[in-house]
Write a structure and sequence with these properties.
By secondary structure, the chain is of the alpha/beta class. Helices cover 29% and strands 16% of the residues. The protein contains eleven helices and twelve strands. The two termini are 26 Å apart.
Length: 335
C-alpha cells in the first residue's frame, strides 16, 4: 500500500535510531563542547524496546516501507542489537535491512549481525590518515580498528559495504584522493558527503562545505570518472564509475544540489518520535501511543496521516539564515 505526502513522495525508507549515545565525539555531529561528560542522554526507560521498534516497523511496512536502516548515535553500543535485527528481518515486506555504524565495534559484532539477518552495513570513515581520523572522532580512536571492522564485515558476508566520508573544509579534504585509492577495486562503494547543517551544535558554516563537484574533480584528475545512472528512483547519491572498471563512488550533495523532491525517508528517534526530515524542528510522539494502549490500526492511521501531511523540503529552501533554526540533532535521529 503506497502512502504519499503532499508532493507525491512515497514512504519507502525507515531509519531507526536505536540509541542517542555514541562512543565517538565527531566534530560535525557530537562535538565535545556540547556532548561532554555531563550531557544528559536518554534514560533507559525512555528508549523504545526492541518489541516496540519491531511493532512500529511492521506498521510502517504495511504503509509501503521496504528498506529499514538501523542508526544511532552509534547503534552497536546498544546491547544485544542482533536480537532486534532478528525481529525486523522476520517482517514480511522488508526488502533491505542495513546498519550505519562508525565501525569501532563492528569486528566484535559483524558475524552475529549477519547470522541474525542483517544484509549490509554502511561504515562512517572520514580519513585513512590516523592523525586526521583521531582528530575528527575526537576520542583518539585509531583508524586501524575501523578497518578491522570492515574486514570482519566482509568475512561475515555483509558486502558490498558502503563507506561514508563526511568532507569538511580545513579538516579532511586532503584525504579524499587517498580514500578513493584505498577502496578502488575492493567492491565496496565509497560515498563522499557534503558537510551539512544538521542540528544546532556543530557550528556549521557554508565556508566549511567542500562541494561535491570539487570532490569529483579532485578524484577524476587522478582516476578518471564518468557519471552513472541512479540505481533506483530517489537514490540520494550521485554515482560515478572509474573508467578503468575499478568500481564506483557516490557523492551526496544535499547542500549544493538538494534532492528533497525525491526524499522517501521517515526517521524514528530512540525515544519514539517520528521525524519526516533530517532537518526537522519537531517530531511526532509515537511512544505515547505505543504505551497508551493504542491498537495497530490506530497507530497506522496516525502514521499515514503524518506522512500524508508532510511538506518538508529544507535543503531546497536553505538560506544563510536557516542554519539557526532549532533542528533535531543528527546524533538523535541518525544521518
Amino acid at each position: 500500500m503506497m502512502t504519499a505526502d503532499t508532493f507525491g513522495r512515497p514512504l519507502r525508507d525507515l531509519r531507526v535510531s536505536v540509541t542517542d549515545r555514541c562512543n565517538f565525539r565527531c566534530v560535525y555531529c557530537m562535538p565535545k563542547e556540547v556532548f561532554g561528560p555531563d550531557f544528559q542522554f536518554l534514560p533507559q526507560r525512555e528508549v523504545l524496546t526492541f518489541e516496540e521498534i519491531a511493532r512500529l516497523t511492521r506498521l510502517f511496512v504495511a504503509l509501503g516501507v521496504e528498506k529499514v536502516r538501523l542508526t544511532g548515535g552509534e547503534p552497536l553500543v546498544r546491547r544485544d542489537l542482533h536480537l532486534l535485527v532478528e525481529k525486523i528481518a522476520a517482517i514480511e515486506g522488508v526488502r533491505d535491512l542495513t546498519l550505519t555504524t562508525n565501525g569501532s565495534l563492528l569486528a566484535k559484532h559483524a558475524a552475529a549481525l549477519a547470522a541474525a539477518g542483517l544484509r549490509r552495513v554502511t561504515v562512517s570513515l572520514d580519513s585513512l590518515d590516523d592523525g586526521v581520523f583521531r582528530a575528527m572522532n575526537d576520542v583518539n580512536f585509531p583508524v586501524a580498528r575501523v578497518l578491522e571492522g570492515i574486514e570482519a564485515a566482509h568475512a561475515a558476508g555483509l558486502r558490498p559495504i558502503k563507506i561514508n566520508m563526511v568532507v569538511k573544509r580545513g579538516m579532511n579534504e586532503g584525504s579524499v584522493v587517498e580514500m578513493a585509492r584505498r577502496f578502488r577495486g575492493t567492491g565496496d562503494v565509497l560515498r563522499f558527503i557534503e558537510y551539512m547543517d544538521v542540528g544546532n551544535s556543530n557550528g556549521w558554516r557554508m565556508d566549511d562545505v567542500v562541494p561535491a563537484a570539487e570532490i569529483v574533480r579532485s578524484i577524476g584528475e587522478v582516476f578518471p570518472l564518468e557519471p552513472l545512472e541512479a540505481n533506483y528512483a530517489g537514490e540520494v547519491a550521485q554515482r560515478y564509475r572509474y573508467r578503468d572498471g575499478a568500481g564506483e563512488i557516490g557523492v551526496i550533495a544535499s547542500v549544493t544540489q538538494p534532492f528533497c523532491r525525491a526524499c522517501t525517508r521517515a526517521r524514528l528517534s530512540a525515544e519514539g518520535r517520528l521525524y519526516t526530515c533530517l532537518f526537522a524542528t519537531h517530531g511526532h510522539d509515537l511512544k505515547v501511543l505505543l504505551r497508551g494502549g493504542a491498537s495497530d490500526d490506530e497507530i497506522a492511521q496516525e502514521l499515514r496521516g503524518i506522512w500524508q501531511r508532510r511538506s518538508d523540503r529544507y535543503s531546497e529552501l536553505r538560506t544563510s539564515a536557516t542554519p539557526g533554526a532549532p533542528k533535531v540533532e543528527m546524533s538523535h535521529i541518525g544521518g
